Amino acid sequence: MNSRAILPGVQGAVGLANDLWRGHVLTVDGVRAKSEGGFYLLPGTDGQPVKAKLKGRYFTDQPVLTIGDASYATGEPSPPFLFIIAFLPVLFLFGGNPFAIALAAVGVFVNFWVIRAQRAEAWKSMTILGLFVGGVLLMAIWAFVSSWVMSLLPH
Predict the structure, then answer these.
(1) Residue 2: which pLDDT band, with cuts at 50, 70 and 90?
(2) 126/129 Cα distance (integer angstroms)
(3) For 14-32, what is each residue's pLDDT tens digit?
(4) What is the domain partition of the chain in residue ranges?
(5) What is the pLDDT of residues 41-90, one digit of tens each?
(6) 20 to 30 A Cα–Cα from 43, which one of 56, 124, 130, 153?
(7) 64 φ, ψ (degrees, to nearest 5)
(8) Phi/psi at 79 (nearest 5 deg)?
(9) Type and span of the H or E element at 66
(10) From the centroid of its chain, how far is CA 12?
């Protein structure tokens, strides 16, 4: 399935939208599909809703859409390199402070949002690396400010 595909039994073009909080979200003709109990309800050609399940909403760039017994790939998977660099913020955990832990968690979360974006792989990798460099700068500023504040405290 491409970003917008016609599937058997479904009235309209089915596509994917990338949501920061919900991961991949199914759309039909550009409108977000209704969800109920872990299933998406897509408009059927016979007037009855078609139940569809999207597997891999968060931690994959191309989830699998399942309608009945049929599964549809939503696109070609990204290279493993993108998934490896997506975990670069985990290195912030070596900072050993709450700010570093929060920055690592937010960094991995945002990187997976970037991987799910419908952009070129070069754009994705440069964005992930740019965010990592920004995180390193934030850690350096945090180290400077926290050591400066600690030096102001009485010994």
Answers:
(1) very low
(2) 5
(3) 888 877 777 778 888 888 8
(4) 4-73, 80-152
(5) 899 888 888 888 888 766 777 788 888 888 888 777 889 999 999 999 99
(6) 56
(7) -105, 130
(8) -70, 150
(9) strand 64-67
(10) 25
Contact 28, 10 (CB under 8 A): yes
Structure token digits, residue 147: 């050591």
Q: How far is it, in rounded angstroms, from Cα 115 to Cα 120?
A: 10
Q: What angle do helix axes 121-152 and 98-116 make, rounded to 10 degrees?
A: 170
- Convert the pLDDT of each residue in 106-153 to its tens digit: 999 999 889 888 889 999 999 999 999 999 999 999 999 999 998 988
Cβ distance 25 to 60 under 8 Å? no
The rounded distance, in Å, linking the Cα atoms of 38 and 81 is: 31
pTM recorded for the entire structure: 0.74
Q: How far apart are the C-alpha atoms of 70 and 13, rounded to whole Å?
A: 17
